[in-house]
Design goal:
The chain has 343 residues and is mainly beta. It has two helices and 18 strands. The chain has helices at 2-21, 43-47, and strands spanning 76-84, 90-100, 104-114, 118-119, 132-133, 136-147, 152-165, 168-182, 190-199, 211-214, 224-227, 238-245, 253-264, 270-279, 283-291, 302-314, 317-328, 334-342. The strands form three sheets. Strands 1-2-3-6-7-8-9-12-13-14-15-16-17-18 form a 14-stranded antiparallel barrel. Strands 4-5 form a two-stranded antiparallel sheet. A hairpin with a 4-residue loop joins strand 6 and strand 7. It is elongated, with a radius of gyration of 22 Å.
Length: 343
């Protein structure tokens, strides 16, 4: 009990510190970098309004809260998903996890953005040179999670972030750290979760694309190449605090409701709610809503989410198929398809 109290003291101290640091996050909208870290993955969480920081478990918790990975129900799991993101961007994601008894759960993940070819333009060829380049944005993560007690779990994810745009590239390391507390205040089914996402060193671009041919008019020499120094940019750190409640209904039916507050360092605060109904632990229907009342933009582009899932055991292998829909203003809606396997 004393150790749990110490954990909560540390957590709430961190909470106060983060809120104080990022209280003015909305005034810096659009000035951060590595925005691919904010693209969600996981059909179940997306369909529940991105609100399940305290209710996600197993491999599905990798993006939402690394502490939830400790609740891996199998010896090993794997998941793969595809998202039709905005502006014809595709998001591919895959992850694997293994449960090591008396040690914890280790997981590996990889997220990639498929942006496609972009024409190369210059000041002398604004309509294009005939060449193209394809941006590459990869996030590779390694996670560790451990169940400290029957109620408390902690987790840490280290993400290696790489961006390549033509002849320049940038790399950095981002950390996610989280905690989940189940049966809070001795209320069965009530869970509390917190997570600090994407904190780490700044990123800056480097590469041959930063060399520019220039002529020093006051010197008697031929034009020379000079390297432009790229300004460093911060990672899109955010802090999330959420609650969820799963009341006891009956053996055939289940219900889960969740809510979340998200404090961002480069945009306005967000509030997210979600719900999930399950029948016989086999078929699930989900819905949620994501809002940002104090967004600095004219209009927050996200909102309604929905989805469904099926769990099925096939010859000792647990198979989960999930779908999520996310409404997006001004763009086509996001569609997420995911399949997960448990061994």
């Amino acid at each position: 009990m004393k150790n749990i109290k110490k954990i909560f003291i540390i957590v709430f101290t961190l909470l106060l510190s983060v809120i104080n640091i990022y209280a003015g996050g909305g005034t810096r909208t659009g000035t951060g970098g590595a925005a691919e870290l904010l693209i969600p993955v996981g059909a179940r969480g997306i369909s529940m309004g991105l609100s399940n920081v305290s209710s996600s478990s197993g491999l599905e918790a990798l993006y939402w809260n690394p502490a939830g990975i400790a609740k891996l129900g199998n010896s090993a799991s794997a998941t793969f998903s595809h998202m039709n993101y905005i502006a014809d961007i595709g998001v591919e994601y895959g992850a694997v996890a293994a449960n090591f008894q008396n040690f914890g759960v280790l997981a590996l993940s990889l997220k990639s953005l498929s942006i496609g070819d972009i024409p190369v333009t210059t000041t002398t060829d604004p309509d294009g040179t005939g060449k193209t380049f394809s941006p590459q944005m990869l996030t590779a993560g390694i996670s560790f999670s451990r169940q400290l007690t029957d109620q408390v779990a902690i987790g840490l994810t280290t993400n290696f972030v790489t961006e390549t745009l033509g002849d320049v590239s940038a790399t950095s390391v981002a950390f996610n750290v989280g905690l989940v507390y189940d049966n809070l205040a001795a209320v069965k089914g009530l869970s509390f979760g917190i997570v600090l996402n994407n904190f780490g060193p700044k990123m800056s671009y480097d590469g041959s694309g930063l060399y520019q041919l220039a002529d020093a008019s006051n010197l008697q020499r031929s034009p020379q190449y000079y390297k432009i120094t790229s300004a460093a940019f911060e990672l899109p750190t955010n802090f999330e605090l959420g609650f969820s409640y799963k009341p006891i209904v009956n053996e055939m039916n289940s219900l889960l409701v969740s809510g979340l507050f998200q404090n961002n360092n480069f945009s306005g605060d967000e509030y997210k709610i979600g719900a999930e109904y399950g029948y016989n632990n086999t078929f699930f229907i989900r819905a949620g809503y994501d809002m940002s009342p104090k967004s600095q933009t004219d209009e927050y582009i996200y909102g309604l989410t929905a989805g469904a899932g099926i769990n099925y055991d096939f010859e000792g292998i647990g198979v989960k198929i999930d779908y999520a829909f996310r409404d997006v203003k001004y763009f086509q809606a996001n569609h997420v398809f995911q399949i997960s396997l448990g061994f």
